[in-house]
Specification:
By secondary structure, the chain is an all-beta fold. 0% of the residues lie in helices and 51% in strands.
């Protein structure tokens, strides 16, 4: 059974850091593109970052470039999102998702497996 489980969310002050984890089961993260998305109340889900060994790289949305870093640990079958210099506008539910397409984009359509989400709240 394919499963994605996010963890690591929480409440942090502006300027602080959090590291989100996305633990995968039922498939190898090395064979998929893993993306991070977020959704704030009343807003559409937006792509944040993705990583793909098959595509050979990573992608970051402009809003997080230079502050967030995505990485993967194949031995643990887990993808991480290190979030530094957090801002109140980063407040959202963060989801990880997986697609078998060899892509480096964070639009929702290609991603077929989704986690349940983890809340990130950044106070000002």
């Amino acid at each position: 059974e394919v499963q994605l489980v996010e963890s690591g969310g929480g409440l942090v002050q502006a300027g602080g850091s959090l590291r989100l984890s996305c633990a995968a089961a039922g498939f190898s993260v090395d064979d998929y593109t893993i993306g991070w998305f977020r959704q704030a109340p009343g807003k559409e889900r937006e792509g944040v970052s993705c990583i793909s060994s098959r595509a050979g790289g990573t992608y970051y949305a402009d809003s997080v470039k230079g502050r967030f870093t995505i990485s993967s640990d194949n031995a643990k079958n887990t993808v991480y999102l290190q979030m530094n210099s957090l801002k109140p506008e980063d407040t959202a539910v963060y989801y990880c998702a997986a697609t078998h397409h060899t892509i480096l984009v964070v639009i929702t359509d290609p991603y077929v497996y989704w986690g349940q989400g983890t809340q990130v709240t950044v106070s000002s």
